Amino acid sequence: MKRILEIILPISAIFSLGIGIWQMLQTKTMILPSWFLVAISLPGTLLLSFAFGFILKKLLNSKWQTSIFTSIFVIIFCSIFYISEHKPVYIIIVPKNYVGEVRLFLSNKNDFSINEYGIGYIDRRTFNDGFYPKIIQTGNDITKQIKEYGKGASATTSEDAYSFNHLSFHILDSGKKVDGKDIEELIRIKAIDTARLYKK
User: Fold this and answer.
1) Engineered SS bond to 104: which of 88, 89, 119, 167, CB 3.0-4.6 Å?
2) Could you tell me what percent of the chain has a pLDDT over 70?
3) What φ, ψ does residue 140 adopt, rounded to 5°?
4) What would you measure as the largest C-alpha separation in the chain, in angstroms?
5) What is the distance between the alpha carbons of residues 127 and 20, in angstroms, rounded to a whole number?
6) Do 55 and 96 fall into the same domain?
7) Which of 23, 52, 84 is the last residue of a domain?
8) Any idea what DSSP says for residue 46?
9) Burial level of 32, CB count in 10 A (0-12/13-18/19+)?
10) Any stretches that span the bilayer, and where are they (predicted)?
């Protein structure tokens, strides 16, 4: 039994680590690239797993190798990460031929049908918890063309009733970013329905 576990646990740990790395690389971070998340998390996970494994071995006064206990903690940490990253997938519909910045403004209800000015709405829970976007334009899935996602906000005062916090990403035009209208102008031309914005 011991011999079987000595084979199965390290293999399971390597498999879990591989799944964890893959999951991290699929995660679109708000500021840093996905590979940076892997570069930081991987050494930390291995070091913590080794430290906890070593301590547990000493506490149990076990004759099993430290690598066995390390493998157990690698599996645990990777499983926790995988479960925590399990988020809903929402489809974002972008108008045909639209290029430029897409903004999802904080609202009381999700509405991922983007208007001609690149405006959509996202509720507070989805905004805070995150989600995996599936971006559709002219019936085609263009999700992989999106390089990064970001969070933004317009400067407001205490007298402003609404929050202008938003998530955003760019749909490139031949590989280049296209500058769009600022939020004040979008409000002026009624591209943003302020009645749908989240009240502070």
Assistant:
1) 167
2) 88
3) -105, 140
4) 73
5) 24
6) no
7) 84
8) H
9) exposed
10) 7-25, 31-56, 68-84
Domain end point (choices 29, 61, 84): 84
Regarding whether 117 and 77 lie in a shared domain, the answer is no
The whole-number pLDDT of residue 32 equals 55
CB 165 within 8 A of CB 153: yes
16 Cα distance to chain centroid? 20
User: What's the pLDDT score for residue 33?
Assistant: 66
* Residue range 72-96, pLDDT digits in tens: 999 998 888 777 666 678 899 999 9
> What element of type H or E holds 52?
helix 34-60
Higher pLDDT: 9 or 53? It is 53
Q: Looking at per-residue confidence, does 128 or 159 come out higher?
A: 128
| CA 139 to each of CA 21, 30, 79, 97, 119: distance values in angstroms, whole numbers, following the listed order | 30, 26, 35, 12, 19
